[in-house]
């Protein structure tokens, strides 16, 4: 019996679609379509488990139920009712409806949610022969997304976003999402044979994400997902995916990862996260101002998210810390540096123009990833390790 083919969507923060697409390709999903905010790809139910466990930079994994034109409530009702909801949702399933609408005639989100709910109930009645659904079983979050009068209907397989890895119980004042940290690390060309340093480490997100990448730890291993209780994604599929992920961990690789922060409370939070993630022996942390930071080793990478005016420091103080970072980097002959900042004066304060810049968003704050490309390690160095 051939496995059921399904369309899946990995949602992506704005500007990171290409990174998510590359991750999916590396996992073997080559049949894909990249659009704003999402990458659609083909899979089977087991791939719901695999992608939720392994995707480092995506926000969540959705099942694409259907897409159709919808300029009236009748269009929305009939289009929704035509989809195979009972194939996924059992008679006791809980199925709340969430919604968004942009540049569409159906602009009232609550009204669209009600129509979709009603259409799904009607479809379920036909299959299950009942007028009432208790909704006390597994959770199936339906999303109706209207854009330019086209409705996209999905089921959320993930639950809380994929950035919730499970190692960060406490956060510092201006945390960077784990998914964004992983994306910046991927852009940085860092690999485990190179030193990594974050002089504004905050809650330690870059450091832990790097260690997980270095040892090939699947980021979703420590958490649960909505679809773990779905009939079409049985428990044995999750068990197989987790066993495969555990087998692929390579904790024999030596890591040279360190970070510092001027705030002792931030270092305490980082220590808790590092310990929870299982890297207490691998990641070194110190309470230090950036001016005293002394990254060790050759061909290393500084990856950091300096504090800035909109979130933590006033602008003058923020520019001063960037200047100090620039001075530290001046002393590092063969290192690369990747800094995410909303500061328009970053290069001026740093006293050097970036080799490349990339627009990214930290929440709603528009930032640039300032990229200073040092030399890559000699090839024989990589082959020796």
> How many DSSP helices?
12
Task: Tell me the count of domains.
Answer: 2
Task: Choose one word for the global shape.
Answer: elongated
Low-confidence parts, pLDDT < 50 over ≥5 residues?
A: 381-385
For CATH, the homologous superfamily of the largest domain is named as Vaccinia Virus protein VP39
Content of β-strand: 15-25%
Mean pLDDT across residues: 93
**CATH architecture annotation of the largest domain:** 3-Layer(aba) Sandwich
Describe the protein.
This protein is 33% helix and 22% strand. It has 385 residues and is α/β, with parallel strands linked by helices. It has 2 domains: 6-156, VC0802-like (2-Layer Sandwich), CATH 3.30.2130.30; 178-217 and 248-384, Rossmann fold (3-Layer(aba) Sandwich). The strands form 2 sheets. The chain has a 7-stranded mixed β-sheet with strand order 2-3-1-4-7-6-5. Strands 10-9-8-11-12-14-13 form a 7-stranded mixed β-sheet, covered by helices on one side. α5 (109-128) links the parallel β5 and β6. The two termini are 44 Å apart. Residues 381-385 have low confidence and may be disordered. Residues 47-157 form the THUMP domain. InterPro entries: DNA_methylase_N6_adenine_CS, RlmKL-like_Mtase, RlmL_1st, SAM-dependent_MTases_sf, THUMP_dom. One of its GO terms (molecular function) is rRNA (guanine-N7-)-methyltransferase activity.
């Amino acid at each position: 019996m051939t496995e059921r083919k399904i369309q899946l969507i990995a949602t992506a923060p704005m500007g990171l679609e290409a990174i998510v697409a590359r991750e999916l390709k590396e996992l073997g999903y080559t049949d894909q379509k990249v659009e704003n905010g999402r990458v659609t790809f083909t899979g089977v139910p087991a791939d719901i488990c695999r992608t939720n466990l392994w995707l480092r930079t995506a926000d969540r994994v959705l099942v694409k139920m259907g897409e159709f034109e919808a300029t009236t409530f009748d269009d929305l009702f009939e289009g929704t009712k035509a989809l195979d909801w009972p194939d996924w949702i059992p008679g006791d399933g809980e199925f709340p409806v969430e919604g968004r609408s942009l540049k569409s005639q159906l602009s009232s989100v609550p009204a669209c949610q009600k129509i979709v709910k009603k259409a799904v109930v009607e479809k379920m009645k036909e299959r299950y022969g009942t007028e009432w659904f208790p909704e006390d079983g597994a959770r199936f979050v339906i999303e109706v997304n209207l854009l330019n009068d086209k409705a996209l209907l999905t089921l959320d397989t993930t639950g809380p976003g994929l950035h919730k890895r499970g190692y960060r119980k406490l956060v510092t004042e201006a945390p960077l999402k784990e998914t964004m940290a992983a994306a910046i690390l991927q852009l940085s060309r860092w690999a485990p044979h190179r030193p990594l340093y974050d002089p504004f480490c905050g809650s330690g997100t870059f450091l832990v994400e790097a260690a997980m990448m270095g040892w090939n730890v699947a980021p979703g291993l420590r958490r649960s997902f909505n679809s773990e209780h779905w009939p079409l994604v049985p428990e044995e599929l999750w068990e197989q995916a987790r066993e495969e992920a555990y087998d692929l961990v390579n904790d024999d690789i030596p890591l040279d990862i360190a970070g510092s922060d001027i705030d002792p409370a931030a270092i305490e939070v980082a220590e808790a996260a590092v310990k929870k993630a299982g890297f207490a022996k691998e990641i070194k942390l110190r309470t230090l101002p950036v001016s005293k930071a002394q990254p060790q080793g050759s061909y290393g990478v500084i990856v950091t998210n300096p504090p800035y005016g909109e979130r933590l420091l006033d602008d003058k103080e923020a520019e001063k810390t960037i200047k100090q970072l620039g001075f530290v980097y001046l002393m590092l002959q063969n290192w690369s540096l990747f800094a995410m900042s909303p500061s328009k004066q970053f290069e001026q304060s740093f006293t050097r123009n970036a080799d490349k810049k990339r627009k990214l968003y930290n929440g709603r704050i528009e930032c640039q990833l300032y990229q200073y490309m040092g030399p890559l390690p000699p090839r024989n160095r990589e082959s020796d390790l």
